[in-house]
Amino acid sequence: MTRVVVAMIKGGLGNQLFAYAAARAYAIRTRRELWLDDVSGFTRDGYGRAFKLGQFPVAAQLAPPRWRLGNPKCLKHKAIRSVNKLLPNPLRSYLAEESDKPEDQLTGFISNRQIVRLNGYWQSEKYFAERAATIRTELQPPPFAEGSADADLEAELSSTPSVFIHIRRDRYSPRLGSGYYDSSITSALSMLGGCQFFVFGDDLEWAQQYLDFHGAPVRYISDGSSDELRDFRLMAACRHAIVANSSFSWWAAWLRRNADKRVWTPNNPGWPLKPASEWTKVPNRLEH
User: Fold this and answer.
1) 154 pLDDT tier (thresholds 50, 70, 90)
2) pLDDT (tens digit per residue) in 57-80
3) pTM higher than 0.85, yes or no?
4) In this structure, how many other beta carbons lie within 10 angstroms of the beta carbon of residue 93?
């Protein structure tokens, strides 16, 4: 029987991308086939989120029902998790992320079991850095229709000194204050010279009221109610980025690699979300 790794996918789009990327790199590293559990992680999702990776050219198959562990809160799932924590790595068939441990909890995990299941968000580039080119290829969002207004906007964003700014505030905690964005905008203007800002997010009214662009051109693209895959592709097209403390904008900033790309990121995101190695960390305060 072929050796397999089954990754439980959960959370919003950004977290789904992290779970896939880490599992994909692990599958390549350990010469396993990758299967995605697209059900268990969403059985009790309080936000009504659903599996989105089917719209990306991922190199994986959907796990059959017999390979799913079911709701992470159910007794069977909890029992398997608890037992595996007591076993040495070669005997473990299940690995749950521990956010306070370094990345070698997964990169150094070697199991002799035929089927290995992974459960985690794995929000660090180090889990898949050695396969970055492969991951970028497999996580390209679906293209826009040729000749559409979105395709034209995407071409504009990719060919001009564009900087996306991502705002997350609606029913979101902890939130970034205006100080982080003001510092990042000032730094972008200093480092890039002439640039244009494109604001995405769920509270554009707040951005219009509190952010100072010092006379630089700015366009407000999304109010958070539009298709998130559209926003994601447009954000990824921008040459530079000022990200929120959000896995969604993390991936939009990381996905397309430009030689001159600059990314500003909060020094303290309030989550176990680690910036990519070359990004500029900006001091910030969090609002709860």
Assistant:
1) very high
2) 999 999 999 999 889 889 989 999
3) yes
4) 16
User: Rounded CA gap, 171 and 141, in Å?
Assistant: 26
> How many Å from the N-terminal Cα to the C-terminal Cα in the chain?
50
Whole-angstrom Cα distance, residue 87 to residue 282? 41
CA distances from 220 to 31, 48, 68, 74, 204 (A): 45, 27, 42, 44, 7
**Interatomic CA distance for residues 235 and 244, integer angstroms:** 12
What pLDDT was estimated at residue 227? 87
CATH of 149-287, one of 3.10.50.40, 3.40.50.300, 3.40.50.2000, 2.60.40.3080: 3.40.50.2000
Q: Where are the domains of the chain?
A: 4-138, 149-287
CA distances from 20 to 7, 32, 63, 188, 272 (A): 7, 14, 13, 31, 17
| Average pLDDT of the residues of the chain | 95
- For residue 42, what is the enclosing H or E element? none
